[in-house]
Write a structure and sequence with these properties.
It contains 4 helices and no strands. It is mainly alpha-helical. Helix 2 runs parallel beside helix 4 and helix 3 crosses helix 4.
């Protein structure tokens, strides 16, 4: 059974798994562009940064991880879906 992008982002532990996540994120964009809220790298990075700022202290349904690699991956993932 293939893991979802959400599952993969939450398994990021270190530099190697972060880089692997970035590859999967790129493939997700190629295969499912219609599921992405952002249509340009500019809007993607803006959404990721906005969510990163909003969640710096955690959110009601989000506990900020201690692992900085996972946190970076989560910020990148949210660039896909954050409006």
């Amino acid at each position: 059974m293939q893991k979802t992008l959400f599952e993969i982002v939450n398994e990021v532990q270190d530099e190697a798994t972060f880089i692997a996540f970035l590859s999967v994120l790129r493939k997700d964009r190629q295969a499912h562009a219609d599921e992405w809220q952002q249509d340009s790298i500019d809007s993607f990075l803006e959404a990721a940064a906005d969510w990163g700022r909003e969640s710096v202290d955690g959110l009601i349904h989000y506990e900020k991880p201690d692992n900085p690699w996972r946190r970076c991956a989560q910020i990148m993932y949210m660039g896909k879906i954050y409006e």
